[in-house]
TrEMBL record:
This is GNAT family N-acetyltransferase. Residues 144-176 are annotated as: Disordered. Keywords: Acyltransferase, Transferase. It is an enzyme of class 2 (transferase). Its EC number is 2.3.-.-. Residues 1-153 form the N-acetyltransferase domain. The keyword Acyltransferase applies. GO terms for molecular function: acyltransferase activity. Transmembrane segments: none annotated. It comes from the Bacteria. Residues 163-176 have a biased composition (Basic residues). The keyword Acyltransferase applies. It comes from Saccharopolyspora cebuensis. InterPro entries: Acyl_CoA_acyltransferase, Bact_Acetyltransf, GNAT_dom.
């Protein structure tokens, strides 16, 4: 079993990034913004709401929270939570989420917000079991760019020396 949640520190940065890369599909929304800088910004801005759980010295779960959501300084936001598949179902996410929410409330949050992708049932269940209730639903509509046409044939570039000769010939022709 993994250990109790501990506050995230700088030395957990690489482990958190690597675990996120494994548990999020970073090629698809809403996970495309997962990056070293997104982890670092959370740790920098609101370290007390960032927690990890370790097993044998490896990060096996994390939560990253922040204070202020949608320009509201008194709303907390839990944007990222992930648990190593080998440790899912052990209650780690609930424990980390609780630690993050308590820190956000202690820092002045009047509510904590999180967003859950509509097919992510494990995350929705985690949130409901942790006292979150469904609120506004936002659906992202996407319009793709039109298919590009067939490739244009490459432009044949004239020899620059010949081009100067032709231009001089055209000039003489016009003058005389
Ligand atoms: C969502 C996730 C963080 C849950 O982590 P976890 O440690 O397995 O969750 P917990 O063990 O703390 O379980 C919390 C609750 O959710 C439920 N739950 C968790 N995974 C579930 C699943 N796959 N199906 C149904 N319920 C699930 C648990 O039963 C538990 O409820 P309970 O207390 O009534 O038993 C984990 O599945 C994960 O990392 N998913 C991939 C990353 C992701 O989608 N993150 C969320 C978006 S940022």
């Amino acid at each position: 079993m993994a250990t109790e949640p501990v506050p995230m520190r700088l030395e957990h940065l690489a482990g958190v990034l690597e675990l996120g890369n494994r548990v999020f599909d970073v090629s698809a929304m809403p996970y495309t913004s997962w990056s070293l800088s997104s982890v670092a910004v959370h740790l920098d801005a609101q370290p007390d709401s960032c927690w990890v759980a370790e097993h044998d010295g490896r990060v096996v779960a994390f939560v990253l929270g922040s204070l202020s959501y949608d320009e509201r300084e008194d709303w907390g936001y839990v944007e990222w939570i992930g648990v190593d598949p080998e440790h899912q179902g052990e209650g780690l996410a609930r424990a980390l989420l609780e630690a993050s929410c308590q820190a956000l409330f202690a820092a002045g949050a009047t509510r904590v917000i999180t967003d859950v992708e509509k097919d992510n049932e494990s995350s929705a269940k985690l949130m409901r079991r942790s006292g979150f209730t469904d609120s506004v639903t936002v659906t992202l509509f996407i319009r793709h760019a039109p298919e590009p046409g067939p490739p244009r044939p490459p432009r044949v570039r004239e020899d620059p020396a010949k081009a100067r000769l032709h231009a001089a010939a055209r000039k003489r022709h016009r003058q005389g």
